[in-house]
Amino acid sequence: xxxxxxxxxxxxxxxxxxxxxxxxxxxxxxxxxxxxxxxxxxxxxxxxxxxxxxxxxxxxxxxxxxxxxxxxxxxxxxxxxxxxxxxxxxxxxxxxxxxxxxxxxxxxxxxxxxxxxxxxxxxxxxxxxxxxxxxxxxxxxxxxxxxxxxxxxxxxxxxxxxxxxxxxxxxxxxxxxxxxxxxxxxxxxxxxxxxxxxxxxxxxxxxxxxxxxxxxxxxxxxxxxxxxxxxxxxxxxxxxxxxxxxxxxxxxxxxxxxxxxxxxxxxxxxxxxxxxxxxxxxxxxxxxxxxxxxxxxxxxxxxxxxxxxxxxxxxxxxxxxxxxxxxxxxxxxxxxxxxxxxxxxxxxxxxxxxxxxxxxxxxxxxxxxxxxxxxxxxxxxxxxxxxxxxxxxxxxxxxxxxxxxxxxxxxxxxxxxxxxxxxxxxxxxxxxxxxxxxxxxxxxxxxxxxxxxxxxxxxxxxxxxxxxxxxxxxxxxxxxxxxxxxxxxxxxxxxxxxxxxxxxxxxxxxxxxxxxxxxxxxxxxxxxxxxxxxxxxxxxxxxxxxxxxxxxxxxxxxxxxxxxxxxxxxxxxxxxxxxxxxxxxxxxxxxx
Length: 592
Fold this sequence. Notes:
Blueprint lengths: L1 H21 L3 H9 L1 H18 L3 E4 L12 E5 L6 E2 L13 E5 L5 E3 L2 E9 L2 E10 L6 E4 H6 L3 E5 L2 E5 L5 E8 L2 E5 L6 H9 L8 E5 L6 E3 L7 E6 L4 H4 L5 E2 L14 E2 L3 E5 L1 E8 L3 E8 L6 H17 L3 H5 L17 H9 L16 E7 L1 H14 L8 H19 L9 E9 L17 E9 H5 L3 H17 L2 H6 L4 H8 L4 E6 L30 E6 L7 E7 L1 H25 L1
Parallel strand pairs: 1-4, 2-8, 3-7, 15-19, 22-24, 24-25
Antiparallel strand pairs: 2-12, 4-5, 6-7, 9-10, 10-11, 11-12, 13-14, 13-18, 16-21, 17-18, 19-20, 21-26, 22-23, 25-26
Helix pairs in contact: 1-2, 1-3, 5-7, 10-11, 10-16, 11-13, 11-16
């Protein structure tokens, strides 16, 4: 029976895929995958008869190769019988289809909503992919090997490449195998320029300039017709996989992908300072890197991340309707911030002798950059260990235990890597606090500008390097949050002294700070070709110790810590970080 032939053949295809994934070399995987193609032809021959046996037509899709979704990327799949995409906008016209559902690898069914033709870009120009299915619930566009063969194309797998040739045996596409799959960005470079231009209509300050009067009066922001930001489009052949890795890499290698703010311009009565710039770097057949540099005077992290997410939304949905409908437009009204005590003037008196220009980056910086992950299970261990030692402490948050653990690991790695520190020297930890909801009256959350305060924790060096250092640090961070950060009256009470306090910390004191926050989730950003593989905060390369903190992209509840340190200190930190989690695991297990 045709149906039985299909079922047996599909079983053989799945077995062959499993065997391919179990091989130890890429070349062996390719050879195993080549054996699937004749099996696909067998399925094709019986497919028309099978359709008549079922009440509803269905397609089998072998989702054995998973990767990030992207409307620009297509997975070349020998296990599916039809081209499929989740992106409705790719179709010129969508027609009804007799195939109403698709069977995926776990045995479940998802609906197919129609079919139509799609234009894609290949090595030899634009080609029409006919009879592609619209399947909204799949997470990856699929290019069917069997359907290509049916249309007269030749598909071969040789020397780690998949080659697709037309009827005249001309190569129209060649894709290199990456990991276990053949993935090609068929759509060409995404058109980010138009979406950026539309986004800037809602974020005009980023295309403006700070004007610094020659009379040394307070600077102000100006936008005139013709003002724009600097956008750099580049291409790189650097190792993309190394850039998105977690292991320690030379920090210098990231600077080619970070845009530099243009130098200030001299006008008769002012100096004009650009405030924002963007660089988009394409890595052919691998990915895209988008770098941002902003002058902190234009906005805090919440403001800049708001812009990045708005740009991504406009790029993905090809317009600003989603942004407008969600009421996510920024608010620029400075009068929502009340300043009855004149703190703004006080800050200007302290800042007016400082340069507004960004200091140049001097390479090499002699540091390595690495990322460390605290999974949800690790964070739970940290919380449990703190509560076991400090039962009276209010339930410590993930932020508290992560900050405390990284802080103590860094303090302990100093002497191990050769730093000479007096036991009684003070160790400081400072972090920014979003004050929008802490102002009186509260400032709307979509306010674009700077509305941040600072919280500072201090302990003696010998307290943090002792065995109980982590618990002491966790208690100190939790207390400053309870007493100050969560009490808006206390938080704002010391606002007049924030700049002076931070200035003292930057004058040679041992201060650690954090860039970013788990609340500012960069991994939610999607320009239309999938979520980011990696976020790097290059600003932590500075002279003062700092680390980046954000949600971990691959698991719920995990956190990602980015560090840039001299290699000897990074090696020491890595060993202390890993061993500390191991000790906590044993303690928690023993206490149970």
